[in-house]
Amino acid sequence: MSTSLVLVADTHLPKRAKALPAALWAAIADADIVIHAGDWVDEATLDAFEDRAPRLVGVAGNNDGPELHARVPEVARVEIEGHRWAVVHETGAKQGRERRMESAFPDVDVLVFGHSHIPWDSTAPNGMRLLNPGSPTDRRRQPVCTFMTVSVDARGIRDVTVVPVPR
């Protein structure tokens, strides 16, 4: 048995887009768990994810106001298929990220983060996997907007896919 996940961050509605892409909603409909790494920006976006996601794990980001911070934590932890996951919005500069995060989260197998809008998939020296899905609404310096899909089972993380979202 495996668990399917959608990883998303930095939705920034309604500032960066008026709506989320249909491809993201379709992936969410097929997922077992959705992880959102912050910067929802408005409560209606959180409400929509809560309505559509079978199970939602989310955190607040630097662009989220007090209402969102009251509803979601700054750090979330969850166990999925026996693996320890943490979710946080910001991890700092890309230089030295793996070592900083292994020090900050020594008991975590997978860390999902956002903030940069740039997809990231790396492994810290202690084996912790670091994943950033990018943003489905604001590509910044990337060719397209993105989110991620992941499969996880008792053996580990499988099929990490950066899903491009056409503009």
Automatic annotation (TrEMBL):
It is an enzyme of class 3 (hydrolase). Signal peptide: none annotated. InterPro entries: Calcineurin-like_PHP_lpxH, Metallo-depent_PP-like, Phosphodiesterase_MJ0936/Vps29. GO terms for molecular function: hydrolase activity; metal ion binding. Residues 5-154 form the Calcineurin-like phosphoesterase domain. Keywords: Metal-binding. Its EC number is 3.1.4.-. Coiled coil: none annotated. Its cofactor is a divalent metal cation. SUPFAM superfamilies: Metallo-dependent phosphatases. Pfam families: Metallophos_2. Belongs to the metallophosphoesterase superfamily. YfcE family. NCBIfam families: yfcE (TIGR00040). PANTHER family: VACUOLAR SORTING PROTEIN VPS29. This is Phosphoesterase. The lineage of its organism: Bacteria, Bacillati, Actinomycetota, Actinomycetes, Micrococcales.
